[in-house]
């Protein structure tokens, strides 16, 4: 067996294990928390009083205007200077959540704004409150439109978690770096890590297509009934 193939075989399970233990949990937790934060931020910008809306706009402006890697460094390496000490994984989770929250808030804000005003008026005309109209009428319609951009954000997040290696989170990419430090074979190991990211992204892309088709059929059924 060629040397490079033996090396890839020996390092395969350590890389996969790091992905299962750190990369995937970090991705899922960051996305769920970031999506929740994004929804709150979008609603604050659209419907909140001016002071709250201004704070939401400032948060989005800062996060979208600065690199994710710098944000992670500020949280993990910068905050200890003012007495705030965080372990690597929580620091990464906070950083990715804040970043995803800012970007998903813009997606959610756009899709909520795209729902025709007549839908609000129809909901109010049958006695719904603002909260009921949002939950039962606006968000279900907005969710169908938001699926493609949110799915793309999720797939990008999977790849962005490799930045957590810079703050010592032992995820997939840092596992590759550690093996490189002992084998001195950076090309082979980094290609293998890239292939694992590619495989995961490909699976998620396939699931995204199926999800979009399902929502498209659902939307078509609603239009037919209407």
TrEMBL record:
Q: Show where the ABC transmembrane type-1 domain sits.
A: 20-208
Instruction: Indicate the family of this protein.
Output: Belongs to the binding-protein-dependent transport system permease family. HisMQ subfamily.
Please name the source species: Rhizobium tubonense
Predominant subcellular localization, coarse grouping: membrane
**Superkingdom to which the source organism belongs:** Bacteria
Q: Which NCBIfam families match?
A: HEQRo_perm_3TM
Q: How does it sit in the membrane?
A: Multi-pass membrane protein
Q: GO CC terms on record?
A: ATP-binding cassette (ABC) transporter complex
Enumerate the Pfam families for this protein. BPD_transp_1
Q: Which residues cross the membrane?
A: 20-46, 58-79, 187-207
Keywords from the UniProt entry: Amino-acid transport, Cell membrane, Membrane, Transmembrane, Transmembrane helix, Transport
Signal peptide bounds: none
Question: GO MF annotations for this entry?
Answer: L-cystine transmembrane transporter activity
**Localisation per UniProt entry:** Cell inner membrane; Cell membrane
Name the chain's protein: Cysteine ABC transporter permease
């Amino acid at each position: 067996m060629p040397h490079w193939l033996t090396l890839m075989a020996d390092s395969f399970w350590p890389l996969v294990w790091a992905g299962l233990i750190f990369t995937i949990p970090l991705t899922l937790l960051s996305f769920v928390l970031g999506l929740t934060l994004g929804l709150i931020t979008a609603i604050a910008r659209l419907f909140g009083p001016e002071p709250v809306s201004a704070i939401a706009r400032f948060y989005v402006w800062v996060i979208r205007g600065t690199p994710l890697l710098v944000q992670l460094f500020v949280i993990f390496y910068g905050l200890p200077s003012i007495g705030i000490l965080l372990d690597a994984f929580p620091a990464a989770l906070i950083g990715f959540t804040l970043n995803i929250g800012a970007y998903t808030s813009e997606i959610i804000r756009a899709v909520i704004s795209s729902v025709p005003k007549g839908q609000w008026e129809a909901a109010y005309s049958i006695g719904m409150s603002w909260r009921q109209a949002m939950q039962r009428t606006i968000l279900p319609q907005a969710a169908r439109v938001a699926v493609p951009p949110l799915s793309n954000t999720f797939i990008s997040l999977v790849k962005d978690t490799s930045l957590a290696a810079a703050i010592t989170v032992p995820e997939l990419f840092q596992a590759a770096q550690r093996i490189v430090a002992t084998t001195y074979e950076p090309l082979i190991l980094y290609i293998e890590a890239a292939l694992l990211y590619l495989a995961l992204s490909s699976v998620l892309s396939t699931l995204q297509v199926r999800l979009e088709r399902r929502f498209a059929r659902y939307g078509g059924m609603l239009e037919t009934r209407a």
